[in-house]
Design a protein that fits this description.
With 100 residues, the chain is mainly beta. The protein contains one helix and seven strands, in the order ββαβββββ. Strands 2-1-7-5-6 form a five-stranded mixed β-sheet, with helices on one face. A two-stranded antiparallel sheet has the order 3-4. Bound molecules: FE2/S2 (inorganic) cluster.
Length: 100
């Protein structure tokens, strides 16, 4: 799996507010845009490895970004199997790589 993300944000439109929200990835602070999904925020920050498969521990990350593939599952505030592409960032949440 590549170490960097091909995810590129489109330029903001002048009418769009660009409030920032801070959350934690693996205990490290990460800044996102308000309204980002967890997956979008992680990819925009260059974080593409969000879980390991249960059987072979292969690296996985967000793929479809629409709730179909389940490759983006992460742990959010201790809750397992959260689809990162379907959950909007909230300030201060703790997001961790899922290892099961
Ligand atoms: S990226 Fe496919 S379900 Fe989230």
């Amino acid at each position: 799996m590549k170490a960097d993300s091909n995810f590129v944000r489109l330029n903001s439109q002048p009418h769009e507010a660009s409030s920032e929200v801070q959350f934690y990835w693996e205990e490290r602070p990460v800044t996102a845009r308000q309204g980002d999904t967890i997956a979008a925020a992680l990819l925009a920050s260059g974080i593409i490895h969000t879980r390991d498969t249960a059987v072979s521990a292969s690296s996985r990350g967000p793929f479809c970004m629409m709730g179909s593939c389940f490759e983006c599952r992460v742990e959010v505030n201790g809750e397992l199997n959260v689809q990162a592409c379907m959950r909007v960032i909230e300030p201060g949440i703790s997001v961790k790589r899922q290892r099961s």
